[in-house]
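We emphasize that the prediction below concerns an isolated chain of 231 residues; any contacts that depend on oligomerization or on bound cofactors are therefore not represented. The input was used exactly as deposited, without trimming of termini.
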Amino acid sequence: MLRRTVLSLVCLFACGSQPASTSQESAGKAAPVDKVQREDKAAAMFATITDSLAESREIAAAYAEGKLGDRLAADKIVLIDGKAPKGTDQAQYYVLPAGYSGPTSTAADLHQAARADRKQVKRAMLGGEDGDRVGLVRGVEPGKYIACAALGPLSSPSKEAYLKRSKELLGEGGLAKTDSKKLAAAAKQAQAETGYTPEKRDWTQVVARCKPIEVTDDVASRVVVIDPASP
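Result of the prediction step, given as a token string:
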């Protein structure tokens, strides 16, 4: 529960989603000792998530510049380039077992696959200012898989205004220089000022594109390009 809350808070900035409650609100219902422990745990988790986000952006930039080296193999990452258009609002990337026989035609299908088998089906979900970058799916050992990309529509003007104002309120340094409470406050204020209402995406209408892959000791096998023309 705590992890979902912290992820939601990060997504307020990176995705533009609205959490059901903040860690502060949840902790306020607990005993004083529990509150301190929960806040310490949330702070540590927030730092881990934001560090991972910064690392992902760094790897994506290295890919764009052709300077990946052997980092993908060292970190067991499969990089999926779905050729997301600039300004893509949200994108989902999946790596499924090669023998998966369920439906994979929409993002909703892939989401259901991940819910049914969280160990075998790995994914990366991006949004906000990261919606149009490549997806990095972690923890992928050598073997045969199915790689998929599902790209949502472009970000709306209202969401762009909300994200821009959120960044302004966070100030210089953005996520790297804030915490979950400040992030929640910035998101709440940005929503109030811009009038933005989080949009519920119907992922059953978002087409998924998949292709079989084989991850080997060759680093190049960990880079997967799924062209928009793919079925």
